[in-house]
Write a structure and sequence with these properties.
- The complex is a heterodimer of chains A (326) and B (157).
- Chain A is globular, with a radius of gyration of 24 Å.
- Chain A has helices at 2-26, 46-55, 57-64, 103-110, 229-232, 242-253, 312-320, and strands at 41-45, 68-78, 84-88, 95-99, 117-127, 133-143, 153-155, 161-163, 167-172, 183-188, 195-197, 202-207, 221-228, 266-268, 274-282, 285-294, 298-306, 323-324.
- Chain A is an alpha+beta fold and 326 residues long.
- A seven-stranded antiparallel β-sheet of chain A has the order 11-12-13-17-16-15-14.
- Chain A folds into two domains: 5-38 and 165-324, Sandwich (Jelly Rolls); 41-155, OB fold (Dihydrolipoamide Acetyltransferase, E2P) (Beta Barrel).
- In chain A, a hairpin with a 3-residue loop joins strand 16 and strand 17.
- Chain A contains seven helices and 18 strands.
- Chain B is of the alpha/beta class and 157 residues long.
- Chain B has helices at 2-40, 54-59, 66-73, 80-83, 108-116, 131-143; strands at 62-63, 88-95, 97-100, 103-105, 121-129, 148-153.
- Chain B has a six-stranded mixed β-sheet, with helices on one face.
- Chain B is rod-shaped, with a radius of gyration of 35 Å.
- The chains are: A alpha+beta (326), B alpha/beta (157).
Chain lengths: 326, 157
């Protein structure tokens, strides 16, 4: 009886301990190098969206559905409950529907006068019923200043415009695929002046603190490199054990690091690509890793070393323009 | 007879059930062992040599004058050229960058000024240096008649 009594006290304590540790490990730690914090939206007008839909529905879906878009158009009217509003273009009579989820956005949307030019950013969906119609799940509502930027471009929540013509192309894993690169990254063209090829690995180092005009004493560095499974793994059967391979990469660069990936996010980012993040320290600096598999051929890796993350925006934009050939 | 038969039949069913349970638990055990094997084994790389030598890249990226450098470096500094900086100066040339004791310099001229002030022993390190830059620095050292010792980093291991 006495024994049973003591167990009776012990079990709830054990359960409580289990729950507490479980709660700690379930809450993912956030990392600085996370593109979802400041995503880039592709700029497009209502006219272009409606034109694409009228021309070829299937092609329009491939191009725009589930994409982050910054839609430029004319503010229409709020729906009765205030959960959505419409936006029209200058040419077509069709309107796209913009749904707002929280109160703050509702206030932002209500602040735009009907008939004024706006730029609404969010994720696009094509609702099938009652008829095919664009529906934007809104993240940001901003008034438009000036005309909609022409040509292919992207913008962030604060209104910075980014064009692919201002960027330089970098290929990785070219010998894995015929006639091109396995991974293609578009980096800001300004990075080229501080680029250095890595001596022991396929990839580049960008010494961002040495950028002309803003030379700073403390290192801020971005490494983009490609881990080739075939040339780097001792046992080719390990190819599918991506998490363990990523661990091995970190241990190779930072020997003695004890890795607990469970604490760090592994998820698809806003652009739909799966990434495993890891945050640690090197010699008093933050050292953040981001890995994404390039099929079964290899892993594309990013390493960001910094004390002050001055060029974070530029680094996050690299995630947006990452292409991996299948 | 019927009864005995039925009992026997029941008995037979039971053993089949027990056998199924045994097979099930054995396969669960094997499954768990396999999973263990997959998740606990370390992945080995073909080489232990670091893919990226952070010691090299982070250390040789400090820009500025001596003041900001001691500011930003702080704690554990193990570079030998730092500890005996009175006597030895290391000029390292990587591509077109020139470092004096780990500090990036704008060109050969400022190095000359810094070196002339003390009777220092100079080590000139060719760290995948740009040929033209290397020649310029060597020319500067000869011009100023500063004795130097050349080293080269070009090992493949």
């Amino acid at each position: 009886m006495r024994r049973r009594g003591s167990y009776g006290k012990l079990i709830p304590v054990l359960i409580a301990c289990f729950l507490l540790t479980g709660a700690f490990s379930l809450a993912p730690v956030t990392v600085t190098m996370d593109p979802d914090k400041d995503p880039l939206y592709r700029v497009v007008t209502v006219d272009v969206l409606e034109g694409a839909l009228a021309e070829n529905k299937a092609a329009a879906m491939v191009t725009y559905e589930k994409q982050l878009l910054a839609v430029c158009g004319i503010m229409g009217s709020m729906e009765d409950k205030g959960n959505a509003f419409t936006m029209t273009g200058s040419e077509s009579a069709e309107a796209i529907r913009c749904t707002v989820s929280d109160a703050k956005l509702r206030v932002q949307a209500a602040g735009q006068a009907p008939g004024s030019a706006v730029c609404v950013m969010g994720k696009m969906k094509l609702s099938a019923l009652p008829e095919a119609r664009w529906t934007l799940s809104v993240d940001v509502v901003a008034p438009m200043t000036g005309n909609a930027p022409s040509g292919e471009c992207w913008r962030d929540a604060s209104g910075t415009i980014i064009r692919t013509s201002d960027r330089a192309e970098k290929g990785f894993g070219a010998d894995r695929i015929r006639g091109g690169a396995r991974v293609t990254a578009l980096i800001p063209r300004s990075f080229l002046s501080v680029e250095e090829e890595l001596p022991d690995t396929e990839g580049f180092l960008y010494r961002l603190n040495e950028l002309p005009g803003e030379r700073k004493a403390q290192p801020e560095q971005l490494y983009l490199f490609y881990f080739d499974n075939e040339t780097m793994l001792q046992d080719q059967n390990d190819i599918r054990r991506t998490t363990k391979v990523e661990e091995a990469i970190i241990k190779n660069i930072l020997p003695g690091e004890s890795i607990a990936f469970g604490k760090f996010p592994k998820r698809h980012n806003a652009y739909g690509r799966p990434f495993q993040y890891y945050d640690t320290a090197y010699d008093g600096y933050h050292a953040e890793f981001a890995f994404t598999p390039a099929g079964e051929d290899g892993i594309f890796c990013m390493l960001y070393i910094y004390r002050s993350s001055d060029h974070l925006k530029d680094i996050l934009s690299v995630f947006r323009f990452l292409e991996i050939a299948q | 007879m019927m009864r005995i038969g039925r009992i026997k039949k029941d008995h037979g069913r039971k053993t089949v059930f027990q056998r199924r349970r045994a097979v099930l638990s054995a396969s669960i055990l094997i499954g768990v062992l396999l999973l263990d094997g997959f998740s606990f084994g370390e992945v080995r790389l073909k080489t232990d040599r670091p893919m990226i030598d952070l010691k090299e890249t982070v250390q040789y990226s400090v820009i500025g004058d001596e003041d900001t450098m001691t500011d930003s470096e702080g704690q554990e500094e193990t570079d030998p050229s730092e500890t005996e900086e009175e006597k030895t100066a290391e000029i390292r040339i990587r591509e077109t960058r020139i470092y004096l004791n780990g500090v990036l310099q704008s060109g050969p001229a400022p190095i000359r000024q810094q070196l002339l002030s003390g009777g220092t022993r100079v080590i000139l390190v060719d760290d995948y240096a740009d040929y033209q830059t290397y020649l310029e620095v060597r020319e500067m050292l000869r011009d100023a008649s500063i004795p130097y010792h050349e080293e080269e980093i070009r090992n493949a291991s």
